[in-house]
Predict the structure.
Amino acid sequence: MKSKNIWKNALKLIPGGNGLLSKRPLRFLPSGWPTYFKDAKGININSLDNKNYKDFSIMGIGTAILGYSNSYVDKKVKKAISKGINTTLNCYEEYLLAKELLKHDRFAQQVKFAKGGGEAMAMAIRIARSSTKKYKVVFSGYHGWHDWYISANLSNIKNLNNHLLKNLKPLGIPKSLKNSTIPVDFNNEKKLIQIFKKNKDAGILVVEGARNQYLSSNFVKTINQLKRKKKIIVIVDEITSGWRETLGGVYKKAGLLPDIVIYGKALGNGYPISAVIGKKKFMEKGNKTFISSTAWTERVGFVAALATIDFMKKNKVFINIKKKGKFILNSWISLAKKNNLEITTNNFYSMPSFYFNYKNIDNEVLHTMFTKLMLEEKYLATNYMFISFAHSDERINKYLKSCDKVFLKISKFLKKKILKNSKTKRRLTY
Amino acid sequence: MKSKNIWKNALKLIPGGNGLLSKRPLRFLPSGWPTYFKDAKGININSLDNKNYKDFSIMGIGTAILGYSNSYVDKKVKKAISKGINTTLNCYEEYLLAKELLKHDRFAQQVKFAKGGGEAMAMAIRIARSSTKKYKVVFSGYHGWHDWYISANLSNIKNLNNHLLKNLKPLGIPKSLKNSTIPVDFNNEKKLIQIFKKNKDAGILVVEGARNQYLSSNFVKTINQLKRKKKIIVIVDEITSGWRETLGGVYKKAGLLPDIVIYGKALGNGYPISAVIGKKKFMEKGNKTFISSTAWTERVGFVAALATIDFMKKNKVFINIKKKGKFILNSWISLAKKNNLEITTNNFYSMPSFYFNYKNIDNEVLHTMFTKLMLEEKYLATNYMFISFAHSDERINKYLKSCDKVFLKISKFLKKKILKNSKTKRRLTY
């Protein structure tokens, strides 16, 4: 297998084999996941070994919200490329995109752009910290690789367990950053109140717009209160959740009142572009510190984002996606029941997930088995997925038939108790 | 003027008007610099106001090493776009680019990629700090906007004066990072020795491959000695200098022995791509900390870099550029002499610069005047420039004729003493 050998070589030259944990085969099926693509269109991926798969897994880790190689977006990008992408003068589209985004985030007056989500988050933290003397950051969820975030594990190696990875050593983070960042579980409003009561120097809160589950109304109410009473700066990370269930962030549907919102991933349908959107009083403070990068002013990202938003508006992509996600989630539940499988599910519909839920069995073996058997059906699939506009109803129904078949097989394995802790089990650790 | 009004509006929506300090009009000619481009090819830029300029200034802040809209690179990028850019599976080109880069940096065994230069530097610092207990960073030069770097100004607001900007307040940087970073002037080997003698917890050195001037042999000798004797980890920032005078970093020509090298800017001829290249023992350590980003695995940057390197190899771009830069630098000197102007120059030939050097005059007024008068000649020009492969000998000669004309005018102004501290003077501060 050509691509398998390439991956082995890549592991020698690139630590981990690539630049993104979520695209490593060990996350899905260590020895069988196809690894490299040759071309991709819609939800179809041809691997470097010339096998065709339908992607019912992470769709470019959520970037391909419209599907791969969307003609509408790509045409505009190619046209822009023909006219130049990175010159001594500025891109008009940087301004146009700022104007467009501010239509959807009415609380905000200003925007700054970056390429990646992690760097946009680091930018947001810098801006927030420029605006308050209470520099400690309370956070829930995953927010990238930068020092401010990983520093959470300096005081306790388990701090990021529920947010990023289990027992991650905070290697390379200056020890002086200890206690500068404090984790809180998603939707745990009691803990949130405690933390802010205890830490008088905590003035910044970072939460995700959704994290498998929607924001609970109590959590939202508590955050809005904290903001009003303690002048906490509220940053909402919509890098993963944004644009999937509304134009902009899902925070809007939850009634959360942010000061700064971050978008990334889906915003450019795969072309790197991220945005930090905030209230003028904070953004202008941030402008007094030095935040600047050549890569950020390159044109492709802006053009792709404008085209992607345009397409999303015209086609009401967020309604389409949510509906399909809800259907898939409910179908998993019925199919599991039909096949006597015990699963739990999460209800952020545009990114549905299920978990095998057995007590005396390593459920990761089951998840890996699901992937393996679905791969035989020509699907890239795991126990969670990002819904894209390119997932057709017809294809979803075919996929669910395969799920039914695979669930039945897993059910039989369980009955025969022939499950072992497979060596090829997926590893979600780092 | 259409673009002037757009810029005014952009300043309201985007702090500073754009994402990069170096592309702001106030850096050149606050009220007259054209601001936005419509299209660009070679060294030609058509502004949004439909005026044509030849770029003899920063060429997309050094990204457009082959010239704008290089057909060879753009064709390969467009082809890649047609086949998909960011899928659940990996890009083969990530591996190919790693392999290619390691041919040119023989000291190294591994590579990690990012999009921007600043984030690649932050990654390098994380990797280095993962590998040593002596976490303090001694640095010379400009290395981006991240906390590790800006923290230098926590102990003294002038620390970054010779490297980034004058008196930059370290807003938003945790105070606990005070003294974690120590500046040293470029080519000042005596100071370098002192710093490492005094700071036993300093184990990392960051220098630029070139900074207006080449690395001096004494500075290089000292660094190589420090590395040998004290096991200092040496990081060479080639984000700006790389690929201009050799394939890879100019550190090679100076005989510097790095542990980690960073490339960016020119590497993708304008498409965002950056690389951290290092010894396996450090890179693997860095892989035990969490460094990961979705944007980094997108395909366009890899494809663009492979094509750019290919073009540079085939056309010996680095020889071409250095020769032209040397010619322009020497021509500035002769033309200044001819017109009785006092200038000093810097000798990093691929990025030549000159400075008016008068004692009782604000030289910034003269630099601004140069830009203003050159703009009337249809050149984007300032007192420094990035040479590109697209600067033809014929056009360079025409440009130098305009320089001659403009130098004469400035000379006359100086004689008549009609210079004032113009209100429209350029501002290099933030």
Notes: Residues 71-315 of chain B form a domain with the Aspartate Aminotransferase; domain 2 fold (CATH 3.40.640.10). Chain B is about 40% helix and 15% strand.
